[in-house]
Specification:
single chain, about 625 residues, alpha/beta, six-stranded parallel beta sheet, five-stranded mixed beta sheet, 17 strands
């Protein structure tokens, strides 16, 4: 049985990716428990929603900026079911000397008691100026509720975060018939909360831009999970967290550090056997500095525990100005160096074509029609990859851990890995695993590391997971002459292992095959090709009518230590060499010394050399000669 892990989400894009990831796990929980191949308790913890209903919430600490949690408002917090009241309820309005019709501070309505169906009701305080009433949960009488603060009036615990005496989880928002998210005005005080997303499927239009991560959570959150950083704004022309040193400085604030440690202790101390931490961190902005300090804290306080860090970057537009490009480049380089130093293993992930100064087209998938400019789309793809890559330390039948996974890839100083994924894995409906693998000359996956990949590239070590193909699809019919060496193997695990040894001779490979697919109900975007069936398999031809929603997909993903990382890291180093530090004076004015930056550049080049092979060395010499 796998041990428990605590997840940290640092930044808005990490929050968006995490929200989709938790939604995928929530969808898997709706499936029969006897068929579960993954242990949900590795990342989720049981909690009680209003009415005593048991739910599973992420063991999560999320650091977000002011303005990024705006969707977590009325009805989003409720941990402990309120006391049932069966008596009469009345409202008393005190217009006061001003005659405003606003309840006096001591009135029943100001305490959260609203009129029942037969009573009168005065105007409520505007949502932006005063606290808003939250639904009280099942069993509460009409008009009964508790008050929670909208963002800007709440505590540092975040919008709608109230004390542990009142809450045990943050519910997902409500949706209308067309899948649109209902505003807070649709949440009626005293009415039963919207059905839990663990029990009902909602439909969110795939083409709609969802700017905030909190607009598409599909699970409940514990009130200890969300911590809003008030010093910086989520968006705008000023007051943004845009430099590495700003992020580092945040966790040098004793109050901020105390809040973080309090939340970490809350989740780690309840674990029976803590295996380590997952850190999802924005790499392109000031949260790279936050991630550097957070992973340093984890390494120092939880020695011996695994720390698997993911540096996430959205697919950025080519029209970004040079100032922002320079900041992004420096944040990325500093984040890679510090996160890889403090973590057991670090993996940068992005669908962008390049992390450097020269823009490249984003990654494409043959059976996805996604919009790379929408963070809700790109983060959903990365979430499907993450949900598959993390399988080795979540298996019900395995003792694997984060540390074990890291140690299979981080030898010889190679603490940075790259991710590949096939979303969805292309397989015809009813085809066997050998048939699906033999159809492709090369492995049908794409590099998720913002770097050009050489065809037929090798690797040093890899952890590969294939999910969504049933055991009955493992091989062709017994008794027949095998059509290929792959068809001669019986079990899917042996088939995949033989395939990997053939495609990557000399590489150390571990592999896992799961029947359980990646479930994709709303709010996961429906950006799939019409050639896919409900189960995500290829159809012979697209259906003549409107295609049905894709409910699940097979996914192939790999975490690899490979020479392509030399191309990525050394290319980043060369781009940084071209920058003029004098034009980025504001970046260094936040607290970063020029000497520290130059040292980080040297460490980046040294790290890139860990992945250098003879071929990469020859290419580097050729480029140096041309320069």
């Amino acid at each position: 049985m796998p041990a428990e892990a605590v997840t940290l989400q640092l930044g808005p894009y990490a929050g968006s990716t995490g929200a989709h990831w938790w939604g995928l796990q929530a969808a898997a929980l709706r499936r029969p428990a006897e068929a579960a191949e993954l242990r949900s308790s590795a990342l989720l913890r049981p909690a009680h929603a209003p009415g005593g209903r048991e739910v599973h919430v992420p063991r999560l600490v999320a650091l977000q900026l002011k303005g990024s949690g705006g969707a977590l408002r009325n009805g989003d917090a409720s941990v402990e079911a309120p006391v049932t009241w069966n008596g009469a309820v009345a409202a008393y309005l005190d217009t006061g000397s001003q005659g405003t019709g606003v309840p006096a501070s001591g009135s029943a309505e100001a305490r959260g008691v609203c009129s029942d169906a037969g009573g009168t009701q005065g105007p409520r305080p505007p949502e932006q100026d005063a606290p808003s009433p939250c639904p009280a949960g099942p069993g509460a009488p009409p008009g009964m509720g508790h008050w929670c603060c909208p963002e800007g009036l709440g505590t540092d615990a975040g919008p709608c975060a109230v004390s542990d005496r009142e809450t045990d989880g943050i519910q997902a928002p409500a949706y209308g018939q067309r899948g649109e998210r209902l505003p807070s005005s649709h949440l009626i005080p005293g009415a039963a909360p919207a059905p839990s997303p663990l029990a009902a499927v909602q439909d969110v239009p795939s083409g709609r831009n969802v700017p905030l991560w909190s607009h598409h959570p599909n699970v409940q959150l514990h009130p200890k999970s969300l911590y809003i950083i008030r010093q910086y704004m989520h968006d705008g022309d000023c007051g943004c967290l845009e430099a590495f040193a700003q992020g580092e400085g945040l966790l040098q604030d004793p109050a901020c550090m105390e809040e973080l440690e309090d939340r970490l202790h809350y989740f780690t101390e309840e674990c029976d056997s803590l295996q380590g931490f997952q850190v999802l961190c924005d790499l392109h902005n000031g949260f790279s500095g936050v991630g550097a300090k957070v992973t340093e804290l984890l390494r120092d306080e939880y020695s011996g525990k695994g720390i698997l860090s993911w540096g996430l970057t959205p697919a950025l537009s080519s029209g970004a100005d040079s100032h922002r490009n320079a900041y992004r480049l420096m944040n990325t380089a500093l984040g890679i160096i510090h996160l890889s130093t403090h973590s057991s293993l670090f993996c940068p992930m992005s669908l962008g074509g390049s992390l450097g100064l020269k823009p490249q087209p984003p990654v494409t998938f043959p059976y996805l029609s996604y919009d790379a400019s929408l963070s809700s789309h790109s983060s959903a793809i990365l979430a499907a990859a993450l949900d598959t890559l993390t399988v080795p330390y979540r298996l019900s039948c395995s003792q694997g851990s984060i540390l074990h996974l890291a140690e299979t890839l981080n030898f010889s100083g190679r603490k940075v890995a790259a991710a590949w994924a096939s979303v969805p894995f292309p397989a015809l409906h009813g085809s066997s695993l050998p048939d699906a693998l033999c159809t492709h000359q090369d492995v049908p996956w794409k590099l998720l590391a913002s770097c050009r990949e050489r065809r037929g590239s090798s690797c040093f070590a890899q952890s590969v997971v294939l999910r969504g193909l049933g055991k009955d699809r493992a091989s062709s019919s017994p008794g027949r002459q095998p059509r290929s060496p792959l068809h001669a193997w019986e079990s899917p695990e042996l088939i995949l292992q033989h395939y990997l040894h053939t495609a990557f001779p000399g590489a150390f490979s571990t592999s896992h095959v799961l029947e359980q697919p990646c479930y994709t109900p709303a709010p996961y975007p429906q950006f799939f090709s019409p050639r896919l069936s409900r189960q995500g398999f290829l159809l012979d031809q697209a259906p003549p009518s409107s295609p049905a929603a894709v409910e699940s997909i097979p996914v192939l993903a790999a975490l690899r230590s490979a020479p392509v990382l030399h191309t990525l890291l050394y290319g980043l180093y060369k781009d940084l060499q071209q920058l003029n530090p004098r034009r980025c004076a504001s970046f260094f004015s936040a607290g970063l010394e020029q000497e520290d930056f130059q040292e980080a550049l040297h460490r980046l080049r040294t790290l890139s050399q860990c992945y250098e092979t003879e071929l990469e060395a020859e290419e580097s010499d050729d480029e140096a000669d041309s320069d």
